[in-house]
Amino acid sequence: MTYGGHARAIAVLGLPLIGGHLAQFAIGLTDTVMLGWYGVEALAAVTLGSSYFFVLFLMGAGFGWAVMPMVAAAAAERDQTSIRRATRMGIWASLIFAMLAMPLLIWSQPILLALGQEAGIAAMAAEYLRIAGWGMIPALMVMVLKSYLAALERTQVVFWITVLAVLVNAGANYALIFGNWGAPELGITGAAIASICTQIVSLVAVVAYALWVLPQHTLFRRFWRPDSEMFRRVVRLGVPIALTNLAEVSLFSASAVMMGWLGAVPLAAHGIAIQLASATFMVHLGLSNAATIRAGNAYGRRDREHMARGGKVVIAMSLMMSLATIALFLTWAEPLISLFIEPDDPNRPEILVIGTGLLAMAALFQLVDGAQVMALGLLRGVQDTTVPMVMAAVSYWVVGIPASYVMGFVWGWEGIGVWAGLVLGLFFAGTLLMARFWGRSIKAVP
User: Fold this and answer.
1) In its keyword annotation, does this UniProt entry include Zinc-finger (predicted)?
2) More confident residue, 179 or 394
3) Which pLDDT score is estimated for 30?
4) Would you say residue 254 has pLDDT above 90?
């Protein structure tokens, strides 16, 4: 396949995945915007609570992401049985993780207080998590089934199911946060209930589609029967992905905790800036998922040359997106931040000043953030996850988090320093992971 052919194939596969990730992001964006209208303290609490939730969620998502290259490779080999087995055991692993995580979500307040958060903000975040935490169970099942469908190149339906979730979440938030349409005004509790409703609707939709369109895989027939050999394979691939996710998301969650030490207004500004940076990251993540599927398919066929060409193309596409984002964040920072703040909010001037500085730092890490997630996508396609896990842990925990603390608090750079540590951690990760894929992993493919 030519480079142009690869670009077209990646676009056909990747654009719906990008759209799906952007739609998923819109769910969090809706929460941020509506709670920003409700009050700065509510926004700060959900920023903290959501960061806490997603640390656990992205760990559990490791098993769903493990399913993607396994199903892609099995599809290339036309092995229908392995497709069913990998998907089913991915759901098993995700459900076990969700049940283990539930106590940390239901009783989160002591943990948040131990992390040095303000008592009022920690109490509100814990209130949100006591309800929203139950959404972990359907959310992780949805992640596995979306990965299964995406690996079979049914990315359009992944997109439309996520769009449905956006609409449900927006409507439920509008009703339950503010008390519209005859609903009670529940504030942050309403946002939590809306989150659970959204996850349940998504699960019903994705299960219905899988049963209707792909009945040959019989995913849920005798679902209770264990498959120890495939379960071990999913866990062996999924645990390093889960810990890699933990390493990365903990870098960002640690930054939220550190911003919380600076007060509710800096934390709210951080929440807005991280939402904007996350929106652009969704494009890289969609391309990374496409890279995993394409590399997994080439891996199943043992086609190294095809994989190398596709890898170069998808990295170039990510690079072009990074350059466009850098220009946007440097020239349109204030108008973008203003979208999240009420015009008469007394904290508006301070949030704009802090948020503009944070977006300038976000522009700096676009290149390295895109590089690390593209490398991870390619490495997962060839089912190389253990060494990348170590590389990510070193980059984020040994380099990124300590650098954020030193630059933010020891050197006194405050929010800018915290985000400078993010840039440094992502730079190390991008460099090490790219070297791993091109220097070793791809050469191991026959």
Assistant:
1) no
2) 394
3) 77
4) no
Residue 399 and residue 85: Cα distance in Å, rounded? 39
The two tokens of residue 121 are 């903000």
C-alpha distances out from residue 400 to 248, 251, 254, 395, 419, Å: 10, 7, 10, 6, 9
What is the distance between the alpha carbons of residues 442 and 316, in angstroms, rounded to a whole number?
18
Tokens standing for 138? 């359907």
Return d(Cα 437, Cα 372) in angstroms, integer: 11
How many residues would you count in the chain?
446
CA distances from 322 to 219, 366, 424 (A): 39, 5, 17
- d(CA 24, CA 145) in angstroms, rounded, equals 15
Backbone angles phi, psi at 422, to 5 degrees: -60, -45
Q: First and final CA of the chain: distance in angstroms? A: 18
- Please give the structure tokens belonging to residue 186: 């529940």
Give, in order, the Cα–Cα distances in Å from 99 to each of 46, 110, 129, 234, 380: 22, 20, 15, 18, 26
- Side-chain-facing half-sphere of 287: CA atoms under 13 Å: 29
377 — pLDDT class (breaks 50, 70, 90): very high
8 Å CB contact between 152 and 294? no
Tens digit of each residue's pLDDT (9 = 90 or more) over 192-243: 899 899 989 999 999 999 999 888 888 887 788 888 999 999 999 999 999 9
